[in-house]
Specification:
The protein is an alpha+beta fold. The chain is built from five helices and eight strands, in the order ββββαβααβαββα. It has two domains: 60 residues, Single Sheet (N-terminal domain of TfIIb), CATH 2.20.25; 87 residues, no CATH class. The structure holds zinc ion (ZN).
Length: 152
């Protein structure tokens, strides 16, 4: 995914590429070399990509939501949440409630695919992936907030 950004050194506008990866958890990287002044940056970071770049990329590439069906129990969600982080059981239940209240979790399509896989690995089969616009009020629990709340 790429967006137009200014060089931190000479302010020339250029396309900067961001790539997201998932292994045990999300991580991302970015690199650019300014063709004008030669300024080069390389970033490799653990965790979800943060704002403001995240917001701009979501606007450009779209946001999707993972919605769990009615047959998914709180216990299923807790198991799923605990597979993502060493969250204590009380916090996992409160996060499960928050996922339900907000209708689902939304983010980049690759983030949602990863969550979907994690859900499947924890025995959850009743879910849908939809465009965020199809969610109630066009909103859901943002992946970034969800990860903050997990305490990762
Ligand atoms: Zn430059």
């Amino acid at each position: 995914m790429d967006i137009e950004q200014s060089c931190g050194s000479c302010a020339t506008s250029m396309k900067v590429n961001y790539s997201l990866r998932f292994s045990k958890g999300p991580s991302w990287s970015s690199s650019y070399r300014c063709h004008q002044c030669g300024n080069a940056i390389e970033v490799d970071a653990d965790g979800p990509l943060g704002n403001p770049v995240r917001a701009k990329l979501l606007e450009k590439y779209g946001c999707v939501a993972l919605i769990f069906g009615g047959s998914v129990s709180d216990m299923n969600l807790v198991k799923f949440i605990k597979s993502l982080a060493a969250t204590d059981i009380k916090k996992a239940f409160s996060l499960a409630r928050k996922i339900r209240e907000q209708g689902g979790i939304c983010g980049f399509s690759c983030e949602i695919s990863w969550l979907k896989l994690c859900a499947e690995n924890n025995g959850i089969v009743d879910f849908q992936v939809v465009d965020l616009i199809q969610c109630v009020d066009g909103k859901a629990y943002a992946f970034l907030d969800f990860f903050d709340d997990l305490g990762n």
